[in-house]
Amino acid sequence: MFAYNPKSLCADEFINHEEILDTLRYADENKNNVALIDSILEKARPRVTEKGTFCSGLTHREASVLLACDIPEKVEQMYALAEEIKKAFYGNRIVIFAPLYLSNYCVNGCVYCPYHKKNHHIPRKKLTQEEVAKEVIALQDMGHKRLAIESGEDPKMNPIEYILECIHTIYSIKHKNGAIRRVNVNIAATTVENYRKLKEAGIGTYILFQETYHKESYLKLHPTGPKHDYNYHTEAMDRAMEGGIDDVGLGVLFGLELYRYEFAGLLMHAEHLEAVHGVGPHTISVPRIKHADDIDPTAFDNGISDDIFAKICALIRIAVPYTGMIISTRESQSVRERVIRLGVSQISGGSRTSVGGYTEEERPTDTEQFDVSDQRTLDEVVRWLMELGYIPSFCTACYREGRTGDRFMSLCKSGQIQNCCHPNALMTLKEYLMDYAGEETRAIGEALIQAELDNIPKEKVREVCKDHLAKIEQGIRDFRF
Ligand code: SAM
User: Fold this and answer.
1) Which atom of ligand 1 is nearest to the CA of 227?
2) CA 446 to ligand 1 centroid distance, Å
3) Which of 82, 225, 274, 435 fits 280 for a cystine, CB–CB 3.0-4.6 Å?
4) Is the separation of the CB atoms in 60 and 15 below 8 Å?
5) Ligand 1 centre from 113 Cα, in Å?
6) pLDDT of 427-453, one tens digit each?
7) pLDDT digits (tens, 9 = 90+) for 220-270
Protein backbone atom coordinates (compact mmCIF):
# COMPACT_ATOMS: atom_id res chain seq x y z
CA MET A 1 0.00 0.00 0.00
CA PHE A 2 1.21 3.49 -0.84
CA ALA A 3 0.82 6.46 1.48
CA TYR A 4 -0.30 9.87 0.20
CA ASN A 5 2.59 12.27 -0.17
CA PRO A 6 2.26 15.30 -2.48
CA LYS A 7 6.04 15.78 -2.39
CA SER A 8 6.84 12.27 -3.54
CA LEU A 9 8.04 11.70 -7.11
CA CYS A 10 6.22 8.37 -7.28
CA ALA A 11 2.84 8.59 -9.06
CA ASP A 12 1.16 6.14 -6.65
CA GLU A 13 2.02 8.44 -3.77
CA PHE A 14 1.20 11.90 -5.15
CA ILE A 15 -1.95 10.64 -6.92
CA ASN A 16 -2.92 8.32 -4.14
CA HIS A 17 -5.93 6.04 -4.68
CA GLU A 18 -6.77 5.74 -0.97
CA GLU A 19 -6.53 9.50 -0.50
CA ILE A 20 -8.94 10.02 -3.41
CA LEU A 21 -11.41 7.48 -1.99
CA ASP A 22 -11.14 9.16 1.41
CA THR A 23 -11.68 12.55 -0.21
CA LEU A 24 -14.82 11.33 -1.97
CA ARG A 25 -16.15 9.90 1.29
CA TYR A 26 -15.41 13.17 3.10
CA ALA A 27 -17.13 15.11 0.29
CA ASP A 28 -20.23 12.89 0.51
CA GLU A 29 -20.42 13.27 4.27
CA ASN A 30 -20.17 17.05 3.99
CA LYS A 31 -22.11 17.84 0.85
CA ASN A 32 -24.97 19.32 2.89
CA ASN A 33 -22.76 20.85 5.58
CA VAL A 34 -23.67 24.47 4.85
CA ALA A 35 -21.32 25.93 7.47
CA LEU A 36 -18.36 24.10 5.98
CA ILE A 37 -19.38 24.96 2.42
CA ASP A 38 -19.69 28.64 3.35
CA SER A 39 -16.25 28.60 4.96
CA ILE A 40 -14.71 26.98 1.87
CA LEU A 41 -16.33 29.59 -0.39
CA GLU A 42 -15.11 32.32 1.94
CA LYS A 43 -11.54 30.99 1.85
CA ALA A 44 -11.57 31.01 -1.97
CA ARG A 45 -12.75 34.62 -2.34
CA PRO A 46 -10.34 37.14 -3.94
CA ARG A 47 -8.74 39.53 -1.45
CA VAL A 48 -7.81 42.98 -2.66
CA THR A 49 -4.72 44.40 -0.94
CA GLU A 50 -2.35 47.27 -1.68
CA LYS A 51 -0.04 44.82 -3.40
CA GLY A 52 -2.70 43.39 -5.66
CA THR A 53 -5.51 40.85 -5.66
CA PHE A 54 -4.88 37.47 -4.12
CA CYS A 55 -6.69 34.18 -4.08
CA SER A 56 -5.72 31.26 -1.90
CA GLY A 57 -7.27 28.53 -4.05
CA LEU A 58 -8.61 25.32 -2.54
CA THR A 59 -7.26 21.89 -1.68
CA HIS A 60 -8.58 18.82 -3.49
CA ARG A 61 -10.62 17.98 -0.39
CA GLU A 62 -12.26 21.37 -0.12
CA ALA A 63 -13.00 21.58 -3.84
CA SER A 64 -14.41 18.04 -3.80
CA VAL A 65 -16.91 19.05 -1.12
CA LEU A 66 -18.13 21.85 -3.38
CA LEU A 67 -18.36 19.46 -6.34
CA ALA A 68 -20.47 17.04 -4.30
CA CYS A 69 -22.78 19.78 -3.02
CA ASP A 70 -26.09 20.01 -4.91
CA ILE A 71 -27.78 22.75 -2.90
CA PRO A 72 -29.00 25.10 -5.70
CA GLU A 73 -28.29 28.29 -3.77
CA LYS A 74 -24.71 27.17 -2.99
CA VAL A 75 -24.11 26.07 -6.58
CA GLU A 76 -25.20 29.54 -7.72
CA GLN A 77 -22.69 31.04 -5.27
CA MET A 78 -19.96 28.81 -6.74
CA TYR A 79 -20.75 30.09 -10.23
CA ALA A 80 -20.76 33.71 -9.06
CA LEU A 81 -17.43 33.25 -7.28
CA ALA A 82 -15.87 31.59 -10.35
CA GLU A 83 -16.95 34.58 -12.45
CA GLU A 84 -15.53 36.98 -9.91
CA ILE A 85 -12.14 35.21 -9.87
CA LYS A 86 -12.14 34.98 -13.64
CA LYS A 87 -12.69 38.73 -13.92
CA ALA A 88 -10.06 39.52 -11.28
CA PHE A 89 -7.23 37.62 -13.00
CA TYR A 90 -8.17 37.28 -16.65
CA GLY A 91 -10.39 40.32 -17.17
CA ASN A 92 -12.39 39.91 -20.37
CA ARG A 93 -9.46 38.59 -22.44
CA ILE A 94 -9.64 35.24 -24.19
CA VAL A 95 -6.46 33.86 -25.71
CA ILE A 96 -6.85 32.19 -29.10
CA PHE A 97 -4.90 29.24 -30.51
CA ALA A 98 -5.18 26.43 -33.05
CA PRO A 99 -4.06 22.80 -32.98
CA LEU A 100 -1.73 21.56 -35.72
CA TYR A 101 -1.72 17.81 -36.30
CA LEU A 102 1.68 16.61 -37.49
CA SER A 103 1.27 12.85 -37.66
CA ASN A 104 -1.31 10.23 -36.79
CA TYR A 105 1.09 7.30 -36.80
CA CYS A 106 0.75 5.74 -33.37
CA VAL A 107 1.92 2.55 -31.67
CA ASN A 108 -0.43 2.83 -28.70
CA GLY A 109 -3.72 1.03 -28.16
CA CYS A 110 -5.76 3.81 -26.45
CA VAL A 111 -9.32 2.50 -26.71
CA TYR A 112 -10.94 5.96 -27.03
CA CYS A 113 -8.68 7.32 -29.78
CA PRO A 114 -9.06 6.59 -33.50
CA TYR A 115 -5.29 6.77 -33.97
CA HIS A 116 -4.87 3.51 -32.03
CA LYS A 117 -2.55 1.03 -33.70
CA LYS A 118 -5.19 -1.55 -34.61
CA ASN A 119 -7.22 0.95 -36.65
CA HIS A 120 -6.17 -0.28 -40.09
CA HIS A 121 -8.66 1.55 -42.28
CA ILE A 122 -7.75 5.10 -41.18
CA PRO A 123 -5.22 6.63 -43.60
CA ARG A 124 -1.93 7.26 -41.83
CA LYS A 125 -0.28 10.57 -42.59
CA LYS A 126 2.80 12.39 -41.46
CA LEU A 127 3.51 15.90 -42.71
CA THR A 128 6.73 16.56 -44.58
CA GLN A 129 8.50 19.84 -43.78
CA GLU A 130 7.06 21.32 -46.99
CA GLU A 131 3.59 20.31 -45.83
CA VAL A 132 4.22 21.75 -42.36
CA ALA A 133 5.17 25.03 -44.04
CA LYS A 134 1.95 25.00 -46.11
CA GLU A 135 -0.19 24.32 -43.04
CA VAL A 136 1.56 27.12 -41.16
CA ILE A 137 0.98 29.56 -44.01
CA ALA A 138 -2.71 28.61 -44.04
CA LEU A 139 -2.86 29.15 -40.25
CA GLN A 140 -1.02 32.47 -40.49
CA ASP A 141 -3.41 33.57 -43.22
CA MET A 142 -6.29 32.92 -40.84
CA GLY A 143 -4.57 35.14 -38.26
CA HIS A 144 -3.19 32.60 -35.81
CA LYS A 145 -0.07 33.39 -33.76
CA ARG A 146 -0.15 30.51 -31.28
CA LEU A 147 -0.27 26.79 -32.07
CA ALA A 148 -0.52 23.54 -30.15
CA ILE A 149 1.21 20.79 -32.10
CA GLU A 150 -0.26 17.32 -31.80
CA SER A 151 1.11 13.96 -32.75
CA GLY A 152 0.57 10.25 -32.20
CA GLU A 153 3.30 8.31 -30.40
CA ASP A 154 5.56 6.37 -32.74
CA PRO A 155 9.28 6.39 -31.93
CA LYS A 156 10.19 5.34 -35.49
CA MET A 157 7.81 7.53 -37.49
CA ASN A 158 7.64 10.55 -35.15
CA PRO A 159 10.92 10.61 -33.21
CA ILE A 160 11.83 13.68 -31.19
CA GLU A 161 14.09 14.84 -34.05
CA TYR A 162 11.03 15.01 -36.30
CA ILE A 163 9.07 17.05 -33.74
CA LEU A 164 12.04 19.42 -33.28
CA GLU A 165 12.40 19.86 -37.02
CA CYS A 166 8.69 20.72 -37.28
CA ILE A 167 9.00 23.30 -34.49
CA HIS A 168 11.94 24.85 -36.27
CA THR A 169 9.99 25.00 -39.55
CA ILE A 170 6.95 26.50 -37.84
CA TYR A 171 8.95 29.32 -36.23
CA SER A 172 10.86 30.01 -39.46
CA ILE A 173 7.82 30.75 -41.65
CA LYS A 174 7.04 34.46 -42.00
CA HIS A 175 4.29 34.83 -44.57
CA LYS A 176 3.08 38.40 -45.28
CA ASN A 177 2.65 39.90 -41.79
CA GLY A 178 2.19 36.45 -40.27
CA ALA A 179 4.28 34.65 -37.68
CA ILE A 180 3.72 31.83 -35.24
CA ARG A 181 5.10 33.25 -32.03
CA ARG A 182 4.36 30.46 -29.60
CA VAL A 183 4.33 26.71 -30.19
CA ASN A 184 2.85 24.60 -27.42
CA VAL A 185 3.49 20.89 -27.66
CA ASN A 186 1.11 18.00 -26.97
CA ILE A 187 3.12 14.83 -27.50
CA ALA A 188 3.49 11.61 -25.56
CA ALA A 189 5.40 11.37 -22.30
CA THR A 190 9.13 11.33 -22.92
CA THR A 191 12.56 11.53 -21.29
CA VAL A 192 14.19 14.43 -19.42
CA GLU A 193 16.69 14.69 -22.25
CA ASN A 194 13.93 15.08 -24.84
CA TYR A 195 12.12 17.64 -22.70
CA ARG A 196 15.36 19.59 -22.54
CA LYS A 197 15.53 19.52 -26.35
CA LEU A 198 11.95 20.80 -26.57
CA LYS A 199 12.81 23.59 -24.18
CA GLU A 200 15.85 24.53 -26.28
CA ALA A 201 13.65 24.56 -29.39
CA GLY A 202 11.67 27.38 -27.76
CA ILE A 203 8.37 25.73 -26.95
CA GLY A 204 5.73 27.44 -24.84
CA THR A 205 3.73 24.98 -22.74
CA TYR A 206 4.26 21.22 -22.68
CA ILE A 207 0.79 19.71 -22.58
CA LEU A 208 0.01 16.12 -21.68
CA PHE A 209 -3.42 14.89 -20.74
CA GLN A 210 -3.51 12.32 -18.01
CA GLU A 211 -6.67 10.89 -19.66
CA THR A 212 -7.62 9.26 -16.32
CA TYR A 213 -6.08 9.36 -12.86
CA HIS A 214 -7.68 6.01 -11.98
CA LYS A 215 -4.76 3.62 -12.36
CA GLU A 216 -6.78 0.43 -12.82
CA SER A 217 -8.94 2.02 -15.52
CA TYR A 218 -5.90 3.66 -17.08
CA LEU A 219 -4.25 0.27 -17.56
CA LYS A 220 -7.38 -1.10 -19.26
CA LEU A 221 -7.91 1.98 -21.44
CA HIS A 222 -4.27 1.86 -22.59
CA PRO A 223 -3.85 -1.88 -23.03
CA THR A 224 -0.80 -1.81 -25.30
CA GLY A 225 2.12 0.41 -26.28
CA PRO A 226 4.40 2.66 -24.22
CA LYS A 227 1.45 4.69 -22.95
CA HIS A 228 0.37 1.61 -20.95
CA ASP A 229 2.97 2.58 -18.33
CA TYR A 230 0.80 4.61 -15.92
CA ASN A 231 3.65 5.75 -13.69
CA TYR A 232 5.86 6.89 -16.57
CA HIS A 233 2.91 8.86 -17.99
CA THR A 234 1.82 10.36 -14.66
CA GLU A 235 5.37 11.38 -13.69
CA ALA A 236 6.00 13.05 -17.08
CA MET A 237 5.47 16.60 -15.81
CA ASP A 238 8.19 16.13 -13.22
CA ARG A 239 10.59 15.05 -15.95
CA ALA A 240 9.48 18.00 -18.11
CA MET A 241 10.23 20.38 -15.25
CA GLU A 242 13.55 18.67 -14.63
CA GLY A 243 14.29 19.28 -18.32
CA GLY A 244 13.72 23.02 -17.79
CA ILE A 245 10.13 23.38 -19.02
CA ASP A 246 8.33 25.36 -16.36
CA ASP A 247 4.99 25.83 -18.12
CA VAL A 248 3.14 22.53 -18.18
CA GLY A 249 -0.49 21.82 -19.06
CA LEU A 250 -2.59 19.14 -17.36
CA GLY A 251 -5.87 17.64 -18.53
CA VAL A 252 -8.35 14.84 -18.01
CA LEU A 253 -10.38 13.23 -20.77
CA PHE A 254 -13.79 13.45 -19.15
CA GLY A 255 -16.05 10.47 -19.80
CA LEU A 256 -13.51 7.72 -19.16
CA GLU A 257 -13.90 7.48 -15.37
CA LEU A 258 -16.08 8.92 -12.60
CA TYR A 259 -15.73 12.68 -12.81
CA ARG A 260 -15.41 13.22 -9.06
CA TYR A 261 -12.45 10.86 -8.95
CA GLU A 262 -10.79 12.64 -11.88
CA PHE A 263 -11.42 16.07 -10.38
CA ALA A 264 -9.71 15.12 -7.10
CA GLY A 265 -6.81 13.52 -9.01
CA LEU A 266 -6.35 16.57 -11.21
CA LEU A 267 -6.14 18.91 -8.22
CA MET A 268 -3.77 16.54 -6.43
CA HIS A 269 -1.54 16.66 -9.49
CA ALA A 270 -1.57 20.48 -9.36
CA GLU A 271 -0.77 20.39 -5.62
CA HIS A 272 2.09 17.98 -6.30
CA LEU A 273 3.68 20.29 -8.91
CA GLU A 274 3.38 23.22 -6.52
CA ALA A 275 4.84 21.19 -3.63
CA VAL A 276 7.80 19.83 -5.58
CA HIS A 277 8.59 22.54 -8.12
CA GLY A 278 7.14 25.62 -6.45
CA VAL A 279 4.87 26.31 -9.41
CA GLY A 280 1.53 24.81 -10.33
CA PRO A 281 0.32 23.90 -13.82
CA HIS A 282 0.26 26.73 -16.35
CA THR A 283 -2.95 25.42 -17.87
CA ILE A 284 -5.62 22.79 -17.38
CA SER A 285 -7.59 21.40 -20.34
CA VAL A 286 -11.03 19.91 -20.00
CA PRO A 287 -11.66 17.71 -23.06
CA ARG A 288 -14.71 15.41 -23.19
CA ILE A 289 -14.76 12.23 -25.31
CA LYS A 290 -16.17 12.79 -28.78
CA HIS A 291 -17.23 10.61 -31.63
CA ALA A 292 -14.37 9.80 -34.00
CA ASP A 293 -13.75 7.31 -36.81
CA ASP A 294 -14.19 3.94 -35.00
CA ILE A 295 -14.89 5.50 -31.58
CA ASP A 296 -18.42 5.66 -30.16
CA PRO A 297 -18.46 7.93 -27.10
CA THR A 298 -21.54 6.17 -25.70
CA ALA A 299 -19.39 3.06 -25.23
CA PHE A 300 -17.85 4.90 -22.29
CA ASP A 301 -20.42 5.08 -19.52
CA ASN A 302 -18.97 7.94 -17.50
CA GLY A 303 -20.03 10.75 -19.83
CA ILE A 304 -20.95 13.97 -18.04
CA SER A 305 -23.82 16.37 -18.68
CA ASP A 306 -23.28 20.00 -19.70
CA ASP A 307 -24.33 21.08 -16.20
CA ILE A 308 -21.72 18.93 -14.47
CA PHE A 309 -19.17 20.06 -17.04
CA ALA A 310 -19.91 23.72 -16.25
CA LYS A 311 -19.64 23.02 -12.52
CA ILE A 312 -16.26 21.34 -13.00
CA CYS A 313 -14.98 24.34 -14.98
CA ALA A 314 -16.22 26.77 -12.33
CA LEU A 315 -14.59 24.77 -9.53
CA ILE A 316 -11.27 24.47 -11.34
CA ARG A 317 -11.32 28.27 -11.65
CA ILE A 318 -11.98 28.59 -7.92
CA ALA A 319 -9.50 25.90 -6.81
CA VAL A 320 -6.51 26.93 -8.99
CA PRO A 321 -7.11 30.62 -9.74
CA TYR A 322 -3.72 31.25 -11.37
CA THR A 323 -3.94 28.36 -13.81
CA GLY A 324 -5.25 29.11 -17.29
CA MET A 325 -8.09 26.90 -18.52
CA ILE A 326 -8.39 25.67 -22.09
CA ILE A 327 -11.40 24.54 -24.08
CA SER A 328 -11.24 23.20 -27.61
CA THR A 329 -13.64 22.91 -30.52
CA ARG A 330 -14.72 19.52 -29.15
CA GLU A 331 -17.39 21.66 -27.46
CA SER A 332 -20.25 23.45 -29.17
CA GLN A 333 -20.66 27.21 -29.38
CA SER A 334 -23.25 27.23 -26.59
CA VAL A 335 -21.21 25.13 -24.16
CA ARG A 336 -18.16 27.28 -24.89
CA GLU A 337 -20.17 30.42 -24.24
CA ARG A 338 -21.23 29.10 -20.85
CA VAL A 339 -17.82 27.98 -19.60
CA ILE A 340 -15.90 31.00 -20.88
CA ARG A 341 -17.92 33.03 -18.42
CA LEU A 342 -17.09 30.63 -15.61
CA GLY A 343 -13.35 30.53 -16.02
CA VAL A 344 -12.00 29.34 -19.37
CA SER A 345 -9.18 31.64 -20.51
CA GLN A 346 -8.01 30.06 -23.80
CA ILE A 347 -9.97 28.64 -26.70
CA SER A 348 -9.12 27.20 -30.09
CA GLY A 349 -10.79 28.60 -33.19
CA GLY A 350 -11.12 27.57 -36.83
CA SER A 351 -9.57 24.21 -35.86
CA ARG A 352 -9.00 21.21 -38.07
CA THR A 353 -8.13 18.04 -36.19
CA SER A 354 -6.81 16.07 -39.15
CA VAL A 355 -3.26 15.76 -40.45
CA GLY A 356 -2.93 18.29 -43.27
CA GLY A 357 -6.44 19.64 -42.66
CA TYR A 358 -5.72 23.35 -43.02
CA THR A 359 -4.60 23.14 -46.65
CA GLU A 360 -7.76 21.31 -47.75
CA GLU A 361 -10.58 23.36 -49.24
CA GLU A 362 -13.23 21.26 -47.50
CA ARG A 363 -12.86 20.13 -43.88
CA PRO A 364 -11.43 16.58 -44.24
CA THR A 365 -12.82 13.93 -41.92
CA ASP A 366 -10.85 10.84 -42.84
CA THR A 367 -7.97 11.46 -40.42
CA GLU A 368 -9.79 13.60 -37.86
CA GLN A 369 -8.85 12.81 -34.28
CA PHE A 370 -12.33 13.72 -33.09
CA ASP A 371 -15.41 15.38 -34.56
CA VAL A 372 -15.27 19.15 -34.27
CA SER A 373 -18.47 20.59 -32.74
CA ASP A 374 -17.64 24.25 -33.21
CA GLN A 375 -16.98 24.49 -36.94
CA ARG A 376 -16.99 28.27 -37.29
CA THR A 377 -14.16 30.14 -38.98
CA LEU A 378 -11.65 32.05 -36.87
CA ASP A 379 -13.20 35.32 -38.03
CA GLU A 380 -16.62 34.16 -36.82
CA VAL A 381 -15.17 33.09 -33.47
CA VAL A 382 -13.38 36.44 -33.03
CA ARG A 383 -16.55 38.38 -33.87
CA TRP A 384 -18.67 36.23 -31.57
CA LEU A 385 -16.28 36.78 -28.65
CA MET A 386 -16.34 40.54 -29.16
CA GLU A 387 -20.13 40.58 -29.40
CA LEU A 388 -20.19 38.83 -26.03
CA GLY A 389 -17.94 41.57 -24.60
CA TYR A 390 -14.63 39.65 -24.65
CA ILE A 391 -11.30 40.74 -26.13
CA PRO A 392 -9.88 38.00 -28.37
CA SER A 393 -6.15 38.04 -27.62
CA PHE A 394 -3.38 36.73 -29.87
CA CYS A 395 -0.80 37.65 -27.27
CA THR A 396 2.30 35.50 -26.82
CA ALA A 397 4.34 38.03 -24.84
CA CYS A 398 4.84 36.30 -21.50
CA TYR A 399 7.07 33.46 -22.48
CA ARG A 400 8.94 35.60 -25.01
CA GLU A 401 9.69 38.04 -22.19
CA GLY A 402 10.78 35.19 -19.94
CA ARG A 403 7.65 35.40 -17.82
CA THR A 404 7.18 31.65 -17.41
CA GLY A 405 6.63 29.43 -14.39
CA ASP A 406 6.63 31.32 -11.11
CA ARG A 407 7.48 34.62 -12.87
CA PHE A 408 4.17 34.38 -14.73
CA MET A 409 2.40 33.53 -11.49
CA SER A 410 3.91 36.63 -9.83
CA LEU A 411 2.60 38.79 -12.64
CA CYS A 412 -0.84 37.29 -12.03
CA LYS A 413 -0.60 38.05 -8.35
CA SER A 414 0.94 41.53 -8.64
CA GLY A 415 -2.12 43.31 -9.99
CA GLN A 416 -0.04 44.42 -13.00
CA ILE A 417 -1.91 42.16 -15.42
CA GLN A 418 -4.21 44.98 -16.41
CA ASN A 419 -1.16 47.07 -17.36
CA CYS A 420 0.42 44.23 -19.29
CA CYS A 421 -1.90 41.53 -20.63
CA HIS A 422 -4.67 43.99 -21.35
CA PRO A 423 -2.68 46.31 -23.69
CA ASN A 424 -1.00 43.26 -25.25
CA ALA A 425 -4.43 41.83 -26.02
CA LEU A 426 -5.52 45.11 -27.63
CA MET A 427 -2.38 45.38 -29.76
CA THR A 428 -2.51 41.80 -31.02
CA LEU A 429 -6.23 42.18 -31.73
CA LYS A 430 -5.40 45.30 -33.72
CA GLU A 431 -2.89 43.29 -35.79
CA TYR A 432 -5.59 40.71 -36.45
CA LEU A 433 -8.09 43.39 -37.50
CA MET A 434 -5.60 45.05 -39.84
CA ASP A 435 -4.32 41.87 -41.49
CA TYR A 436 -7.05 39.23 -41.46
CA ALA A 437 -10.49 40.36 -40.27
CA GLY A 438 -13.63 40.67 -42.36
CA GLU A 439 -15.15 44.14 -42.63
CA GLU A 440 -17.84 43.65 -39.99
CA THR A 441 -15.41 42.06 -37.51
CA ARG A 442 -13.01 44.91 -38.05
CA ALA A 443 -15.60 47.58 -37.33
CA ILE A 444 -16.67 45.87 -34.09
CA GLY A 445 -13.02 45.36 -33.11
CA GLU A 446 -11.94 48.96 -33.68
CA ALA A 447 -14.77 50.22 -31.47
CA LEU A 448 -13.89 47.65 -28.81
CA ILE A 449 -10.22 48.69 -28.76
CA GLN A 450 -11.16 52.37 -28.36
CA ALA A 451 -13.45 51.57 -25.45
CA GLU A 452 -10.99 49.18 -23.79
CA LEU A 453 -8.08 51.64 -23.85
CA ASP A 454 -9.77 53.36 -20.90
CA ASN A 455 -9.41 50.17 -18.89
CA ILE A 456 -5.60 50.37 -18.85
CA PRO A 457 -4.98 51.78 -15.35
CA LYS A 458 -1.55 53.41 -15.79
CA GLU A 459 -1.63 56.55 -17.91
CA LYS A 460 1.92 56.03 -19.19
CA VAL A 461 1.11 52.48 -20.37
CA ARG A 462 -2.09 53.74 -22.01
CA GLU A 463 -0.14 56.39 -23.94
CA VAL A 464 2.51 53.91 -25.11
CA CYS A 465 -0.24 51.49 -26.13
CA LYS A 466 -1.98 54.21 -28.19
CA ASP A 467 1.31 54.99 -29.89
CA HIS A 468 1.88 51.30 -30.71
CA LEU A 469 -1.66 51.01 -32.08
CA ALA A 470 -0.94 53.93 -34.42
CA LYS A 471 2.28 52.24 -35.56
CA ILE A 472 0.42 48.97 -36.19
CA GLU A 473 -1.92 51.02 -38.39
CA GLN A 474 1.19 52.11 -40.34
CA GLY A 475 2.29 48.51 -40.86
CA ILE A 476 4.73 47.86 -37.99
CA ARG A 477 4.10 44.63 -36.05
CA ASP A 478 4.90 42.72 -32.87
CA PHE A 479 4.79 45.23 -30.01
CA ARG A 480 4.51 43.90 -26.50
CA PHE A 481 4.76 44.83 -22.84
N1 SAM B 1 -0.56 11.22 -28.48
C2 SAM B 1 -0.33 12.13 -27.44
C3 SAM B 1 -0.34 11.44 -26.08
O4 SAM B 1 -0.09 10.26 -26.03
O5 SAM B 1 -0.60 12.07 -25.07
C6 SAM B 1 -1.26 13.34 -27.36
C7 SAM B 1 -1.82 13.87 -28.61
S8 SAM B 1 -3.49 13.45 -28.78
C9 SAM B 1 -3.47 13.97 -30.44
C10 SAM B 1 -4.35 14.69 -27.83
C11 SAM B 1 -5.47 14.24 -26.92
O12 SAM B 1 -6.66 14.01 -27.64
C13 SAM B 1 -5.30 12.97 -26.13
O14 SAM B 1 -4.46 13.17 -25.03
C15 SAM B 1 -6.72 12.63 -25.74
O16 SAM B 1 -7.06 13.13 -24.46
C17 SAM B 1 -7.57 13.37 -26.77
N18 SAM B 1 -8.46 12.43 -27.50
C19 SAM B 1 -8.16 11.23 -28.00
N20 SAM B 1 -9.27 10.65 -28.54
C21 SAM B 1 -10.29 11.48 -28.34
C22 SAM B 1 -11.69 11.44 -28.62
N23 SAM B 1 -12.27 10.40 -29.22
N24 SAM B 1 -12.45 12.51 -28.26
C25 SAM B 1 -11.90 13.58 -27.65
N26 SAM B 1 -10.59 13.67 -27.35
C27 SAM B 1 -9.78 12.64 -27.68
Assistant:
1) 4
2) 37
3) 274
4) no
5) 6
6) 999 999 999 999 999 999 999 999 999
7) 999 999 999 999 999 999 999 999 999 999 999 999 999 999 999 999 999
